[in-house]
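TODO from last week: model Cthe-2314-like HEPN domain-containing protein.
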Amino acid sequence: MLRSLLGEPPRQNEGLLADTMNIMGNSIQLLHKQMELYLDPSHDYRKLEVWTHGLISSLDELEQCLFAATFFRKKVVTDFVDDMDAAEKDNYARYVFFYKDGFIRLFSILDKLGTVLNELYNLNTSKEKPHYSYFTVLRQFHYLKVHIDLGNTLFTIKENYKEALNVLRRRRNTEIHYMNSELQDDLWQRHQALYGKIELEDLDGHLRDLEQGYRMVCETLLASYDYIIQEWKKNNKK
């Protein structure tokens, strides 16, 4: 959708994104077979289908945010806010919008996946923490000593992207709970320069963090749904 609005050709899913989308699509097909076999009287399969469709849509939106933020970043060529003309300020504002939307969506996807895993594997995370996050769910695998292979795989993925995730989580928390993250950068720059010009934050560094977070989400979804499918096949050998 965003690509067409920006005059770009439609996205062709490939690589990690294609693998992730495909495996979630495959899980929906298996869910349909499960519903045909067992009629799903408790609507558990239907609920998981709806959640999986939601994750597919959310991942699509995250990728679009990363694309749009990168698109508008290329249109920002000035190092100082005070030197920007009106058009460049608009492009900078658009970059900021999609960058912020991206890291907020990133953690939203992880938390939605946490809900799926918590329900699917009866992790009872709400007893540990009423308003839990994906990372709380991840700790439950270790604490309860269940589905150890999946828990270890997801923990390894998290650790591989630890640095970028920590940066993004701090900015997400600042954005939601305190002040806009870019305003915090501006305040720091104003303090450093006193009454001089405000230098832009590290736009390329921020985008690298967002791209790393996006890849972490893809790998996490891919590993989770690969495990889900293998468990279904193992437990339903009809």
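Done. The CA atoms of residues 103 and 168 lie 6 Å apart.
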